[in-house]
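Comment thread on ticket #2218

A.B. wrote:
> Attaching the input chain for the structure job we discussed in standup.
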Amino acid sequence: MQRQVYLNGKFVPESEAKISIFDSALMFGDMVFEVTRTFQHVPFLLHEHLQRLYLGLKILEIDCGMTIDEMEHITLETVKRNSDCIPPEIDFQITHNVSRGPLKFYSSLFPEGVRPTVSINCWPLTFHLAGMASFYHSGVHCFVARQRNVPSQYIDPKIKNRSRVHYQVANLEAARVGPDAFAVLLDEHGYLTEGTGSNIFIVKSGCLMTSKPHNILRGVSRYYIIDLARKLDISCLECDIEPYDMAGADEAFLTSTPFCMLPITRFEHKPIGDGRVGQVTKKILDTWSTEVGVDIVQQAEYCASQLSNLR
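C.D. wrote:
> Ran it. Output below, let me know if you need it in another format.
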């Protein structure tokens, strides 16, 4: 059974989901998107992701032709159609991509008229999580990329958009640094902003600190961590963080929708704290697992074992 993709009002097999080479997404990176994950095949914080999607669409003046409630309804239908294609032990990501559609300059090629491109697809998290499994125990090595983040007065990072070649440049540098390397980006003032698709937290004297929200993607997982910290009576500050602060932290971790949390145990080739996964990090991750009814680390390890069996 092949997974189905919602594409412009129809469900089509995944292998047949195609868009025009004249789409504004390809021509300009003019596309807003969201990635939501499931736990036990149930979308997690879907409405929060869609709220961010629709704010981005509003700012970029893209009318996708449906209300947020209609988008949520068709998303749940997409999940329903694909759930049986993915083993129950493995969760999946739901990706929304919405662009302005083919550029009007090429409208003669589209006799039915040009309109925004809307797609929703489901993809198993097997490969995403398998590669992360060992990092929950060993932690990752973060380093400051030579590539800076794009200042918000040029492209606002709070809009989750596909114009993100600066992330890819930093990822290429990370690949040269090592297999456990994750790039973090500075802003024009030298403050740590975010990773290439993740937010940053450090722990100092039991207090969480994360970058101010003005120059970063305001991650849904980031806000969820802040809420979990409140429940656990852990104070959390949104503040300017310098590389100096990361180097002097007791613990640190990254947050992102697919992997939830990954400990950082080295920064710029030096250990953070004692170089091991910290207790605050473990406590928050364990609480997250309890809240969603899925052992996040065990699921990643299961994904890794499945890929290993295939080899």
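A.B. wrote:
> Thanks. Noting for the ticket: Residues 68-83 form the longest helix (16 residues).
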